[in-house]
Amino acid sequence: MNIKAMLLGACLAASTLATGMARAETEMLDQVVAIVEDDIIMASELRERVDSINQNLEARGVEMPPEEVIIRETLDRLILESIQLQKGQRVGVRITDAQLNDAMQRLAGQNGMTLDQFRLALEQQGQSYQGMREQIRKEMIIQRVQQGNVNQRIEITDQEVDNFLATEEGQKMTQPEYQILHALLAVSPSAPAAEAERAEAYVDKILAEIQAGSAFEEAVSAPGPYTFSGGNLGWRKLDDLPSLFSDLAPGLAKGETRKVRSDSGFHLIYMADRRGDESMVVNQTKVRHILVKPSEIMTDQQAQELVTSLKSRAEAGEDFAELAREYSEDIGSAQEGGDLGWTSPGQMVPEFEQTMQITAIGEISDPVRSQFGWHILEVLDRREEDMTDRATRNKAMNYLHNRKYQEELDAWLRQIRDEAFVDIK
């Protein structure tokens, strides 16, 4: 059956009912257009989505594709959405009202509105705010389902990272970025020496004002015998800077101004900001712990009393690692004697991290309560670790991951569509 004819028949069918009173009434009929696993797609749902797409295309001034193409592609999209929503339902994906409210707030903010203004704007356009909320909820569920299924299909090896970092693209991506303000006092190379000296003296005066604390843009735009040209170059990587700036940028500290002479005249170059080349040295702590969780057979107070007694036993000479193997309920570390290895700031929950920071090397902390239960911890050592190289590799790995994501997503969507039971009416 022709898809266009199907939609017209399903969506626009109407019957005139005679009542014997010389009046007719038109009633729109709704029908199932597709069965997708345990779900159905109704003609009204398809019609509503097609209308929305047509309105968006018209508002953007885009040439309208043939109607049958819009119908076919929209139905395909609805089928894929249904498959993914059902997968999310089966594994218990839920979007709370608080999470949905946050998403709506962000959406309103992106349109330069408060949430109330956004709701009013939707209503003025004839759209339902509640309908928009439910559509956003569905999109959030689908996004989580996609991430959960696609991320596990992506593996980035160390060799791939090495190979990427060795390429021109990889080297440029990991380059630092600079935000430079530039002011030029133009002086011709053939200008008399006295004129060049007067111009340079003025540039030196402005430079001294900036170094004394004046704002760069105010200093170079202040009324005077000379006028500067230039402006903000924006954020640029080293390779994207003119050679005059690329030679200086790596050696300029944030907030520093440098005077340079070229054939064009005298330049003032101000490093407004820089990012991506910071040395990432972090303070790490080597720590082990024992965790006791309150339960139906152990009250919160009993759990606290147990870890308190374990601290006393460890301080009396019993082996902390053996106590952890016997009593700790942290599955990940218990068999390792409670050893958590070297931890960086932000890895642990706040209560644990605060206690870890104030505990001296070789000491066992007082019991501390976190969301997981009661802990005692022993600080074994501390060190400063340069994480710069690791941060660069993580940046490259994230880039490679994102590059593979769309490819794997497309493959996964084709797979679930092929595997699903779909009956188009």
UniProtKB/TrEMBL annotation:
It is found in: Periplasm. It comes from Seongchinamella unica. The PPIase activity resides only in the second parvulin domain. The N-terminal region and the C-terminal tail are necessary and sufficient for the chaperone activity of SurA. The PPIase activity is dispensable for SurA to function as a chaperone. The N-terminal region and the C-terminal tail are also required for porin recognition. GO terms for cellular component: outer membrane-bounded periplasmic space. Residues 1-24 form the signal peptide. This is Chaperone SurA. PROSITE patterns: PPIC_PPIASE_1, PPIC_PPIASE_2. It catalyses: [protein]-peptidylproline (omega=180) = [protein]-peptidylproline (omega=0). Residues 175-273, 282-381 form the PpiC domain. GO terms for biological process: Gram-negative-bacterium-type cell outer membrane assembly; protein folding; protein stabilization. SUPFAM superfamilies: FKBP-like, Triger factor/SurA peptide-binding domain-like. Chaperone involved in the correct folding and assembly of outer membrane proteins. Recognizes specific patterns of aromatic residues and the orientation of their side chains, which are found more frequently in integral outer membrane proteins. May act in both early periplasmic and late outer membrane-associated steps of protein maturation. Its main location: periplasm. GO terms for molecular function: peptide binding; peptidyl-prolyl cis-trans isomerase activity; unfolded protein binding. The keyword Repeat applies.
